[in-house]
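STRUCTURE REQUEST FORM
Protein name: Monocyte to macrophage differentiation associated 2
Source organism: Accipiter nisus
Requested output: structure tokens
Priority: standard
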Amino acid sequence: MDKPCPVPGSLLQGSWSKAEPRFMNHRVPSNRRYQPTEYEHAANCATHAFWILPSILGSSILYILSDDQWETISAWIYGFGLSSLFIVSTIFHTISWKKRHLRTMEHCLHMFDRMVIYFFIAASYAPWLNLRELGPWASHMRWIIWIMASIGTVYVFFFHERYKLVELVCYVIMGFFPALVILSMPNRDGLPELVAGGLSYCLGMVFFKSDGRIPFAHAIWHLFVAIGAGIHYYAIWRYLYRPGALETKTSR
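Status: completed
Returned output:
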């Protein structure tokens, strides 16, 4: 009986790559990182790169509209956090896509990308905590939020990608816990927008953990982040910085 002819490894690899779906790869175990397809890589880059210039422009507008030192400081903090989120994410996904041999750089950028999320959350709260009157206990949140961001950064440094569910829970806690201070604000203008933006982030988390289950899941998560950030920016501009919004502010 004839023996089967051995198939070269390169041919097997080529056949396997052709069999792979274009828009989604197989799901990986929790201790490994999902490898996007070429199309998913491109979508991951585009869905955050598009918002870099608008975030910088929007931050500049808040700076121009600032009337005092606290408004200027808050505009800088918020603008830096907002712009950094999109810039770092775009750089990481671009390196991950086009420079796959730079594994050390990719790993560091991935850690940095996750760390920036903590500071973005803190920066998003900064204008509200700095420019609105808070209750006695809630005023401590102005510095507690930055301690939480620092703890999250340390956690990523030591336990990056080890306990993904814990990391997700940390993001959720930091995202919602400071929102409780809104209950102590005499002026609650902007509350519907803050809730709408928060809901956008929450809906996006469904896709954040759906790589390998839903095509372009991470890119869809990026879009929900952009929508949430846009809603929150609008609220900050309208109720804290827009000319004529002085009536909505109270002494700090």
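Reviewer notes: Confidence is low (pLDDT under 50) at residues 1-19. The domain at 35-248 is CATH 1.20.1070 (Rhopdopsin 7-helix transmembrane proteins).
Form closed.
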